[in-house]
Specification:
Blueprint: H1 3-19, E1 26-30, H2 54-66, E2 71-75, E3 83-84, E4 87-88, H3 89-99, E5 103-108, E6 121-125, H4 130-137, H5 141-149, E7 156-162, H6 170-179, E8 183-190, H7 204-219, H8 231-236, E9 246-250, E10 253-256, H9 273-281, H10 286-299
Helix pairs in contact: 2-3, 6-7
Length: about 300
């Protein structure tokens, strides 16, 4: 991370904590909900299968920037499916950088070529070892690993949603992240139980076991882009929600925290590590602040 970016985020954090502000700093734009996969844990793919036009996305970027947002994510569906005439995902990333966003990340399922060195991070969904990943996402593991080996930058971060299918593969994914060329780190979430995927959710005891594994892998030097100080809050689901510092833009609609905020009772079962990390950070939790500084400076 550039020194200028670090100073900007530090200043934002200090003002947010001291004055209890609720201004957002991280924004996500859903470029399409069209996806080439039908993953068992996903509730938001191919609902409309609309690919939003460049001009609309550009206006949404300008709106988020004017709100003070400086960390931008492009999400799907599958982001690499996004095209508008001669423009592709790379054009969105380059334009976001030109506009002044300090960190620009992309989320993908990894089944398309990973030629996007302009992104700060490519968050790539890997949901276990080959057997468990393929059980969740279909026969895609080998193609994903091939695309990673051919990637044009080392800006890839695995993004794993831990559920009943893959909970025993947490340590293995840490090892794959550590040993695979072009992969910088791995970031975890617990499955958030949308009404149609409740059976995949973990119990408190299962979350604790997963956190113990992640903590052990951290001790062994695995590159993990999560904060250990937040684990007790995630296990007990007693962190503040929603996260006012994060917003999602989809087809002109702005939502605080995420698209799931309108689902009754779902906030109380949130499994997103970043929500716990950000809400505790901006409440002034000293352990979280110090650990986030170390982690972000290392991996972003």
């Amino acid at each position: 991370m550039k020194v200028s970016s670090f100073l900007h985020f530090a200043g934002f954090g200090i003002k947010t904590i001291l004055f209890r502000k609720k201004d957002p700093v991280l924004g996500t734009i859903i470029v399409t909900d069209k996806c080439n996969l039908k993953c068992k844990h996903c509730s938001v793919n191919n609902i409309t299968a609309i690919v939003h036009p460049y001009e609309q996305i550009h206006q949404e970027m300008q709106q988020l920037y004017s709100m003070g947002i400086r960390i931008l994510f492009f999400c799907g569906g599958e982001t690499f499916l996004w095209r508008d005439q001669d423009k592709g995902l790379r054009d969105l990333v380059i334009e976001a950088k030109r506009m002044g966003f300090l960190i620009v990340n992309v989320v993908t399922n990894g089944t398309y070529p990973l030629d996007l060195p302009e992104a700060d991070l490519i968050l790539l969904s890997l949901d276990g070892d080959k057997k468990r990943h393929n059980e969740v996402r279909g026969d895609t593991y080998d193609k994903i690993m091939e695309n990673i080996s051919k990637a044009t930058s080392d800006n890839i971060c695995f993004y794993m949603a831990i559920n009943q299918i893959n909970k025993e593969a947490v340590g293995k994914v840490c090892e794959i992240a550590r040993d695979t060329k072009n992969v910088r780190a791995v970031s975890f979430n617990f499955h958030t139980p949308y009404p149609d995927t409740k059976e995949l959710a973990l119990s408190k005891e299962e979350k604790a076991a997963c956190c113990e594994t992640i903590g052990q892998m951290m001790k062994e030097g695995a590159p993990i882009f999560n904060l250990k100080s937040v684990f007790p809050y995630l296990i007990n689901n007693n962190f503040p929600t929603p996260c006012y510092q994060c917003v999602v833009m989809e087809n002109g609609k702005l939502s605080t925290c995420g698209r799931c905020i309108e689902v009754p009772g779902l906030c109380e079962q949130c499994g997103y590590f970043f929500v716990a990390e950000y809400t505790l950070l901006f409440r002034g939790n000293i352990k979280v602040i110090l650990e986030m500084m170390r982690t972000y400076l290392k991996y972003v």
